[in-house]
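sry for the spam today, last one i promise. struct tokens for design, 242 residues
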């Protein structure tokens, strides 16, 4: 079928990507993509290397300002900033906005790592003007989250939040990065997933070790989040303002 024979844009995009390309077209497109990826890494490293110790807050872009989890994320970010950490988010609306807002109100560093998406994503107004970074590639953005965070606070979210959570746990599990606190907020939201991991992955299929359940903590309040962060870094003789 020809491109013009398709009725919707999604089908047209798929058909265009499946279209047979010449070797010169493939080589040219891939070569320029390498330079673009390199530029995102360089810009990210240079910008993030100056921000100091931070904690990343993940969560849904769809959470409304009146939602209980939005309000809790704002309180968590405020407490984190008062404890001496900066806050990093994905830079968009929802939980991300709440995180940046709490950091802003707490007088702390407020970082946004934005990515352009066909829906949902636009940067929120609570990011420090010199710490609002934009990315085209998800994998470059995720490197920045992991490399420059002293902890992950994971609020309720969707596929993107799950992706970021499991990537962090995988990197720690496989010892590709050093262990750091991963804090899941909301027992009622996370309990079903954790029960499934315990009963199916650990006990039935044995695809995960029981000790891997120690990679994260589940809490419900802002004070518990700060307690987990402080307890972890006290054990390893580190402090937020190192």
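last one done:
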């Amino acid at each position: 079928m020809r491109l013009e024979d398709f009725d919707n844009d999604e089908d047209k995009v798929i058909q265009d990507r499946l279209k047979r390309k010449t070797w010169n077209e493939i080589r040219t497109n891939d070569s320029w993509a390498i330079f673009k990826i390199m530029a995102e890494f360089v810009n990210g490293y240079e910008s993030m290397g100056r921000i100091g110790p931070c904690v990343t807050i993940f969560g849904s872009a769809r959470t409304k300002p009146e939602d209980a989890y939005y309000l809790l994320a704002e309180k968590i970010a405020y407490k984190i900033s008062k404890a001496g950490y900066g806050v990093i988010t994905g830079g968009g609306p929802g939980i991300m906005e709440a995180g940046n807002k709490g950091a802003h109100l707490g007088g702390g560093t407020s970082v946004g790592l934005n990515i352009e998406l066909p829906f949902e994503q636009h940067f929120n107004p609570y990011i420090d003007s010199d710490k609002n970074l934009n990315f085209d590639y998800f994998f470059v953005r995720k490197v920045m989250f992991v490399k420059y965070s002293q902890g992950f606070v994971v609020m309720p979210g969707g596929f993107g939040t799950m992706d970021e959570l499991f990537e962090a746990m995988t990197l720690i599990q496989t010892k590709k990065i050093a262990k750091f606190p991963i804090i899941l907020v909301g027992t009622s939201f996370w309990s079903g997933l954790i029960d499934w991991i315990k009963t199916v992955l650990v006990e039935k299929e044995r695809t995960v070790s029981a000790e891997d359940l120690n990679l994260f903590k589940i809490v419900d309040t802002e004070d518990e989040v700060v307690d987990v962060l402080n307890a972890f870094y006290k054990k390893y003789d580190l402090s937020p303002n190192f």
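The helical segments are 9-18, 23-48, 68-82, 95-105, 138-147, 159-173, 187-204, 222-235. ok im logging off now
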